[in-house]
Amino acid sequence: MLGLIPFSDNDQSDDRELAFKFYNDPKSPLAEAIRTTMFSIELSSSETPPRTIMLTSVLPNVGKSTLSCNFCLSLLTSKAKVLLIDTDLRKPTLHEIFAIKDNTRGLSSFLAGTLTLQEVLRKTQFENLFFIPSGPIPPNPAELLASSRMRNFIATAAKNFDYIIIDTPPFHGFAEILILSNMVDGVILVGELNNTPREGVEYFRKAVTNVGGRILGVLVNKAGKGGKGYRYYGSYKYQNYYTYGYGPQEK
What we know:
Blueprint: E1 3-6, H1 15-19, H2 21-24, H3 29-43, E2 52-57, H4 64-76, E3 82-86, H5 94-97, H6 107-111, H7 117-120, E4 122-123, E5 129-132, H8 141-145, H9 148-160, E6 163-167, H10 175-181, E7 186-192, H11 198-210, E8 215-223
Parallel strand pairs: 1-8, 2-6, 2-7, 3-5, 3-6, 7-8
Antiparallel strand pairs: 4-5
Helix pairs in contact: 3-4
């Protein structure tokens, strides 16, 4: 386990406020937990620390995207040049966090060959943090992400940025998670306290390692929520979430 991100009643904010918590409140428990996690990641491989990192989860709505943003902000403190990519081509949210109203220019447009990288790369309000939104939702997310254009893009971007943080859809057995895990230096699984099934985590571990992906560890979000302590796997029904991205879902 990489770390515990504490839950606080004071964190009942909208996603945009939570996503920038590290920057706006650098002394908060969340910010301290992010620092500890990033330190653990750096120590995970003393010779070659991971520079392209993918965040995913077993279930939706565990705070994965807001943590991706906070990871990026923590890296900026070392004067690093950071790229955040939204590869959730099913139900993207990062463009809303960055207040981008027009999501017609993004990763899917670039991978489809209709736009250039320069046309989809966005500067953010934070110096040295760049962002590529998902773009329009395509009919074939896995095929686009499995393309040689995507693999070449990550390899090229790694030469121009110090860190690349990739936000993905929840796992759910979707092929794109396995595809991307083989393109990055490491994968972080985000779980929610008492709401992440053991069988889902084990299935995820086996699936990613079978394709040659490197799992950096599990990051437990909302630790201490509801006074339930630190028992970080519950018995939530894994199969109930296979409709992600294919229809209305209760949040």
